[in-house]
């Protein structure tokens, strides 16, 4: 099992002795989840909707801080069949680098997640017929651990494009100043330039 500083917060007092020579603080701040790249603070929780959840509010409840990632009291279960739709709106424009999911292995564990971005019209019919932005095949045996699924955006982030020529630098002037653009060999007479 890997060891992380954020895991230590639950295993020690705050005297910070014996941490393999690294110094850090575990005081909670409003931006604590940003350390883990969490967008939790950018989710418009009042507008989160989950279709097919077995109890009202389950979809909202599973969107939790990193510190609560192992909390088994907040789970999402389908009420009728194996499909769920979770609509998660954000309060600002965001780039989702990965999706972290925790589930117990077994017959009721999810096997696939389809992500649709910038869509408010997704229902069960459109989710089946429409091409998702990205589809994730989930790991079979998670042993109850949080699994991070990296998005296409993050995979392509380091991709660069080669140019066949030097880049061109262009300057656009909203109102050109003729004094900045004198023609060599031209004569200026009464405010006009003659060649």
From TrEMBL:
InterPro entries: Galactose-bd-like_sf, PITH1-like, PITH_dom, PITH_dom_sf. It comes from the Eukaryota. GO terms for cellular component: cytoplasm; nucleus. Pfam families: PITH. Residues 1-35 are annotated as: Disordered. Belongs to the PITHD1 family. This is PITH domain-containing protein. It comes from Actinomortierella ambigua.
């Amino acid at each position: 099992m890997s060891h992380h500083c954020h895991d230590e917060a639950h295993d020690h007092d705050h005297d910070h002795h014996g941490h393999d020579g690294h110094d850090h603080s575990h005081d909670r701040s409003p931006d604590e989840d940003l350390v883990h790249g969490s967008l939790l603070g950018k989710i418009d929780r009042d507008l989160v909707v989950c279709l097919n959840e077995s109890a009202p509010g389950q979809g909202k409840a599973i969107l939790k801080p990193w510190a609560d990632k192992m909390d088994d009291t907040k789970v999402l279960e389908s009420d009728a069949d194996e499909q769920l739709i979770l609509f998660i709106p954000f309060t600002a424009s965001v780039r989702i680098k990965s999706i972290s999911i925790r589930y117990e292995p077994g017959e009721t564990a999810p096997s696939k997640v389809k992500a649709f971005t910038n869509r408010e019209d997704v229902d069960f019919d459109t989710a089946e017929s429409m091409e998702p932005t990205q589809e994730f095949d989930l790991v079979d045996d998670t042993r109850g651990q949080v699994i991070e699924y990296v998005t296409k955006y993050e995979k392509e982030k380091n991709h660069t494009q080669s140019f066949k020529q030097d880049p061109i630098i262009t300057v656009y002037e909203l109102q050109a100043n003729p004094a900045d653009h004198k023609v060599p060999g031209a004569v200026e007479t009464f405010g006009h330039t003659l060649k």
